[in-house]
Design brief:
Blueprint: H1 8-15, H2 28-31, E1 42-46, H3 52-59, E2 63-68, H4 71-84, E3 89-92, E4 105-111, H5 119-130, E5 131-142, H6 163-169, E6 174-187, E7 191-203
Parallel strand pairs: 1-2, 1-4, 2-3, 4-5
Antiparallel strand pairs: 5-7, 6-7
The chain binds S-adenosylmethionine (SAM).
Length: 206
């Protein structure tokens, strides 16, 4: 797969700003799924940015691989892990070029990783494949209604998600939760204010 994403420079420019783009606390929806996590589980945090979610997973005792295409973001993620005294495995990867491990992870976490079709389906299929049987995907993203808000996310309807799209992408998983909510985001400087979110928890059949 080739990746024509024009935003890489923008991400590097953003991560060059001081501080953590979405704060250093975990995404609220992810933290609310703590009951699904056990120490020792192997987790993959995709497009993990500057590491707030990967580091939180490591703090729960999971073995975490945090991947992102931005070298600056991954540097910051490693620094955050060191400052919290946890181990975080990090790798700078373009997820379109990466050799995704097969049937490896107990948990895959995808928070605000937005792609337009057909790139979305291709990456979501890789998330499914990289899960071990019985493993779970935890995903939060903006819905298409986010275009009416200014609290973050792509300004491109195609790169915002609907329940139908996620149901189709993850048809091979048992969907345990899939819901939409309009809520107030308070995640660092880049996610502030009313937002339209979609949340998914899905399990790969054993
Ligand atoms: C909105 S940020 C989300 C960061 C993180 N998940 C969080 O919630 O704090 C989207 C991230 O996707 C990363 N990204 C975009 N395209 C990518 C690709 N092809 N491979 C790996 N990472 C990518 C960007 O570098 C950026 O860090």
């Amino acid at each position: 797969m080739t990746d024509p994403d024009p935003y890489i420079q923008t991400w590097e420019e953003r991560y060059a700003l001081p501080g953590y783009l979405y704060g250093s606390a975990p995404n609220r929806f992810l933290a609310a799924q703590a009951h699904l996590l056990r120490p020792g589980m192997h987790a993959l945090a995709v497009a993990d940015g500057d590491g707030r979610n990967g580091v939180w997973l490591a703090e729960q005792g999971l073995r975490v691989l945090s991947v992102d295409r931005s070298p600056l973001a991954i540097e910051k993620a490693a620094a955050l892990a060191a400052s919290r005294g946890v181990t975080l495995e990090t790798e700078v990867v373009d997820l379109f070029q990466w050799r995704w491990p097969v049937a490896t992870f107990d948990v895959v976490v995808s928070i605000f990783f937005h792609l337009a079709s057909p790139r979305r389906e291709a990456i979501h299929a890789r998330m499914v494949r990289t899960l071990r049987p019985g493993g779970r995907l935890i995903l939060e993203a903006f819905t298409k209604r986010q275009l009416q808000f200014a609290s973050g996310g792509p300004r491109d309807l195609e790169a915002l998600y609907s329940a139908e799209e996620l149901q189709a992408d993850f048809a091979d998983l048992e969907i345990e939760r899939l819901d939409e909510a309009e809520t107030e985001l308070d995640e660092g400087a880049f996610h502030q204010g009313p937002a339209a979110l979609i949340r998914l928890v899905a399990r790969k059949p054993s």
